[in-house]
Write a structure and sequence with these properties.
By secondary structure, the chain is mostly beta strands. The chain has no helices and ten strands. Strands 3, 4, 7, 8, 9 and 10 form a six-stranded antiparallel beta sheet that branches. The protein has a four-stranded antiparallel beta sheet with strand order 1-2-6-5, with no helix packed on it. The protein is globular, with a radius of gyration of 13 Å.
């Protein structure tokens, strides 16, 4: 779900991981691991955040307790240099 605010669009990211202690969002819009965004845990075990993004195409993944995970709700993927896949979000 996205919401437009000024020149940016607020994009909601969520990951269901009830057992996780920490979930981070990392992508080319956070310089990957340099400035990841911490998600907030909800009572039902889903972790959420909303990120204002300019129009464009972005690659991202979740870092769940130190392990890379893809967004199961994302349909678009591209190969990354580590032999895995990154999720793709177009705003």
């Amino acid at each position: 779900m996205t919401m437009k605010t000024a020149d940016k669009t607020k994009v909601n990211f969520e990951f269901h991981a009830p057992e996780a202690k920490d979930v981070l969002l990392a992508g080319n819009f956070t310089e990957w691991e340099h400035t990841p965004i911490r998600l907030k845990r909800q009572k039902n075990g889903t972790w959420k955040t909303a990120v204002p993004l300019d129009h464009g195409t972005y690659e991202y993944r979740f870092l769940v307790d130190g392990h890379w995970e893809n967004d199961p709700r994302c349909d678009g993927h591209v190969s990354n240099p580590f032999g895995d896949q990154n999720c793709v979000c177009t705003v």
